Amino acid sequence: MLPADCAGCRERRAGLRHGVCPECVAALDALVPRPVRPTPAPPGLPPCFALGPYAGPLRETLLAYKDHGRHGLARPLGALLAEVVATAVGSARPLALVPVPDTAAAARARYGDHLGRLARHCAERLRVAGWPVRVLRPLRALPRPDSVTLDSAGRAAAAAAAFRPRSARLGPDAADAVLVVLDDIVTTGVTLAAASRALLASGRTPTVTAVLAATQKRVPA
What we know:
Layout: E1 4-5, E2 12-13, H1 22-29, E3 34-36, E4 48-53, H2 56-67, H3 74-89, E5 95-99, H4 104-109, H5 114-128, E6 133-135, E7 139-141, H6 152-160, E8 163-165, E9 178-182, E10 185-186, H7 190-200, E11 208-214
Parallel strand pairs: 4-11, 5-6, 5-9, 9-11, 10-11
Antiparallel strand pairs: 1-2, 3-4, 7-8
């Protein structure tokens, strides 16, 4: 097998599994989903669970997937996200997974809906484990400025107006399901909170949110 760049450590390696070297696979497998909470938490943010901190192989693999076109990573990352959902919800029960939607511009820049792909693979893994799961898309994303250019107040204001329900309700097929909002990374929590508030307008209350990575505040030295 010819060497290729590992998505987790960027080293040129042979024997990659889904684009990740054995050492980085072991590091990702060692992560344990846990509850996380931004400080301060924005209003309307449901309980949130993350696989691990936005660092090391997890950070690099997410960047390779989102920003460098490594779409083959959707399957292993989706499987890891399924672990987060299972931990967040507990025992197997019907689930409705709602990925936070991309804007049209973001989807074009990333050659597709990166979170939608993760949600599909997440659902597949959960179904194999015996969970009844549906992926729903009740929200649409409205154009908004790049968050990199905004301060914390600007990001909060942009997120507050970022989503609209596609229809009045999620539908009877999701009436008894646990509603889980999915994203890849949580930083301030404003995006997840805004999506959750938009879902409330659709007549449903999200139970939990699940993400792959949570950023950590830097403490000044």
